[in-house]
Design brief:
binds magnesium ion, Rossmann fold, 3 domains, five-stranded parallel beta sheet, 14 strands, 47% helix, binds adenosine-5'-triphosphate, alpha/beta, 421 residues
Length: 421
């Protein structure tokens, strides 16, 4: 018979609980293993039911249809004496949704043996959460400095930059009060106008070194993507990490970029609804990372009309900023060109021990009509092509023998193209 009891564990004491039960011959698995194909009954026969503990936390952390899904899955265990556990943080939801499945809901109590007598697990210190550099850590003066740097590095989109400045100031205040956990931006618009660049620029302006936490939702469009994102426990806890945890753990700045958000599924949308509300990312193994004070940038190529039909009203209303990025003005594209040219020239001068003239920007303004380019990636390619042509012509004009020689020219030009890319 299925045990009619669900046991709750405190996440802080989970490691010790796991050690203890493993030493007694149990293994702990996550219910997410059974979610991959809920019609596949053979999964249940492959587990050693008498010695297995099933963690069902994920039912409450990522799925909207917790009750129906839970009842359906747990019914399959009806002949087994399986022990079910869940993270205490999901107690309210699980007690409510699974009230027909379980008769009793109790806490796991762990007594730690120690030399000074038994010590209750509740007294243990909380685990250390790695610190990220966050916008909410900045002083008011540093926020002003951050914003002026941000304005300088992202071209155009002036209205967005004004609103972003205000949003950050408010976010800092309300975050301190515990009222606003995560700042969320939803950026739509054509390709190559700087949506992704917003997240990169925030990351740079906060002094990031280890790489931006970036997830492309184009890879998460199947029904069971949630387990790739937040992990699924095969066998022992901690054996399988979700991408979002790896990315957040590996970055040093409190910014997450979610590209192509609209490509994903309702389950993931709901997961993020929760993340924005709670300021926590919770894995299927009930590991938790506190992301209070983080900025999440969602980008999408979705049109305004599709935005309403693809993204649920709950989620829509939860974004702190929703905006359509328009094409850049010519002035902004020229600024972009000036900046690119400066960086390319520096690379070239350093590598080839050369000194290009200072008026290069004017030369390029005459050669490239920025009005023809709407995607900055295309403009960048054009700048590079024109640059290589320019160097080639200059060398010939100056009678530089090695580059004037056609057989050598190609390989030298290829080298230049490599250096500046
Ligand atoms: N407003 C901008 N300010 C500075 N650089 C920009 C801007 N817009 C585009 N760029 C440059 O162009 C490149 C492409 O921009 P980005 O990746 O932000 O495009 P996107 O809007 O996210 O497009 P997609 O929808 O194709 O992902 C970036 O590498 C960036 O250097
Ligand atoms: Mg992008």
């Amino acid at each position: 018979m299925i045990k009619k009891e669900l046991l709750f564990f405190e996440w802080d004491s989970f490691g010790i609980y796991k050690e203890q039960v493993i030493s007694q011959g149990y293994s702990i698995i996550s219910i997410s293993d059974f979610l991959k194909d809920i019609t596949d009954d053979s999964l249940y026969f492959n587990i050693d039911t008498a010695n297995t503990i099933v963690d069902i936390s994920v039912l409450a952390s990522g799925y909207t249809d917790c009750q129906a899904l839970g009842e359906r899955l747990l019914d399959k265990f009806s002949e087994f004496e399986t022990i079910f556990i869940a993270d205490k943080r999901f107690e309210d939801r699980l007690v409510k949704e699974l009230r027909y499945r379980f008769l009793h809901f109790n806490d796991i109590k762990i007594i730690l043996p120690s030399v000074t007598g038994d010590k209750l697990i509740e007294d243990l210190p909380k685990s250390n959460i790695k610190s990220h550099k966050k916008i909410t850590d900045l002083t008011d003066a540093e926020i002003e400095e951050f914003c002026s740097k941000f304005r300088g590095q992202l071209y155009g989109h002036e209205k967005f930059k004004d609103e972003f400045h205000e949003l950050i100031k408010n976010f800092k205040v309300f975050n301190k009060l515990g009222e606003h956990k995560v700042l969320s931006l939803f950026l739509m618009g054509e390709s190559g106008v700087g949506k992704t660049e917003v997240a990169k620029t925030i990351y740079n302006c906060l002094g990031g070194k280890k790489g931006l936490a970036k997830i492309n939702f184009g890879n998460y469009s199947s029904d069971f993507s949630l387990s790739s994102l937040i992990g699924s426990a095969r066998g022992y806890i901690g054996s399988d990490d979700g991408e979002i945890f790896i990315r957040v753990r590996n970055t040093d700045v409190g910014v997450i970029l979610i590209d192509e958000f609209e490509k994903s599924t309702a389950t993931l949308f709901n997961y993020f609804l929760d993340v924005l509300e709670s300021g926590k990312i919770i894995s299927s193994q009930a590991e938790e990372i506190d992301i209070t004070g983080f900025i999440i940038v969602f980008t999408s190529n979705i049109s305004k009309e599709h935005f309403a039909s693809r993204i649920s009203p709950e989620l829509r209303s939860r974004f702190d900023y929703k905006g359509m990025f328009t094409r850049l003005y010519s002035e902004d594209k020229k600024k972009y060109m000036e900046f690119r040219l400066e960086s390319i020239t520096k690379k070239y001068n350093d590598c080839f021990k050369d000194q290009l003239p200072d008026n290069l920007f004017e030369v390029f303004l005459n050669k490239i009509n920025v009005g023809k380019f709407h995607n900055m990636r295309d403009l960048n390619k054009k700048i590079k092509r024109v640059f290589v042509d320019y160097i080639s012509k200059r060398a010939i004009d100056e009678g530089k023998a090695e580059i004037a020689e056609p057989s050598q020219r190609r390989s030298i030009l290829r080298k230049i193209a490599d250096v500046i890319s």
